[in-house]
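Hi R.,

As promised on Friday, here is the backbone we talked about, encoded as structure tokens. Could you run it through your design pipeline when you get a chance and send me back a sequence?
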């Protein structure tokens, strides 16, 4: 399934910048910016939103993220004018615009369906939209990242510790590469106790160059998952 993402903002610069940021981590995902009014002012445009949805017509589904309340109202109006088939493809997320777009784009790049993309977006900044997904409440982890439940060692658990050698550590693009690699495996994967398939959880760890991280996987391809992620970290994420 191909999931496209439409970014709706009152500012054309914010919409365009958010799309550019997300493309750094999800180059293959169709992303469209619909920002500002038709005359270049601050506001939202029914026509721009409608055109954006049509521009994403090749995608199987479209996830829309908005910045402020009136952007949702304009989006709802645009949806009302779509035919039934197009309207069914469009899903509006309540996630924060920038964080939600980045998380959604990484999930789509990893091959997630529309439910997975919506769930990824909903983890942004502790939000939870109607389409499901866990929030990231403040806890005992740096940046408020949520520690994955740990009931003790389990049969089939594979663990490895590796040092971050790239300049930026587990931030932005390297974190996105880590999440995409983890998402290709069926096993549950953690890094320093947080879900390795959640971009925002990984970034919230704020692990810098030189820090050591512990990767743990449980499941049918646990060894391959750990080996793949260790190799990715040791390669410096290609930087």
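Update: got your reply. Pasting your designed sequence below so it's all in one thread:
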């Amino acid at each position: 399934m191909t999931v496209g993402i439409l970014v709706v903002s009152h500012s054309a610069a914010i919409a365009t910048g958010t799309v550019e940021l997300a493309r750094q981590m999800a180059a293959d995902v169709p992303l469209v910016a619909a920002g500002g009014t038709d005359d270049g002012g601050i506001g939202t445009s029914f026509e721009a939103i409608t055109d954006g949805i049509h521009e994403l017509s090749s995608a199987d589904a479209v996830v829309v993220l908005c910045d402020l309340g009136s952007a949702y109202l304009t989006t709802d109006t645009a949806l009302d004018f779509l035919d039934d088939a197009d309207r069914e493809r469009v899903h509006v997320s309540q996630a924060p615009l920038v964080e939600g777009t980045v998380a959604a784009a990484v999930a789509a790049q990893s091959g997630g369906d529309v439910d997975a993309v919506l769930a990824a977006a909903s983890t942004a900044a502790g939000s939870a939209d109607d389409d499901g997904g866990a929030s990231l409440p403040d806890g005992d982890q740096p940046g408020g990242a949520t520690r994955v439940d740990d009931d003790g060692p389990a049969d089939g658990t594979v663990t490895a510790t590796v040092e971050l050698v790239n300049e930026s550590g587990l931030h932005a693009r390297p974190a996105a590469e880590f999440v995409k690699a983890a998402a290709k495996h069926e096993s549950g994967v953690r890094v320093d106790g947080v879900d390795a398939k959640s971009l925002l959880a990984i970034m919230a760890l704020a692990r810098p160059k030189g820090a050591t991280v512990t990767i743990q996987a449980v499941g049918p391809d646990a060894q391959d998952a750990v080996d793949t992620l260790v190799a990715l970290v040791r390669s410096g994420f290609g930087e």
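One thing I noticed while checking it: The domain at 142-238 is CATH 3.30.1340.10 (Histidine-containing Protein; Chain: A;).

Thanks again,
M.
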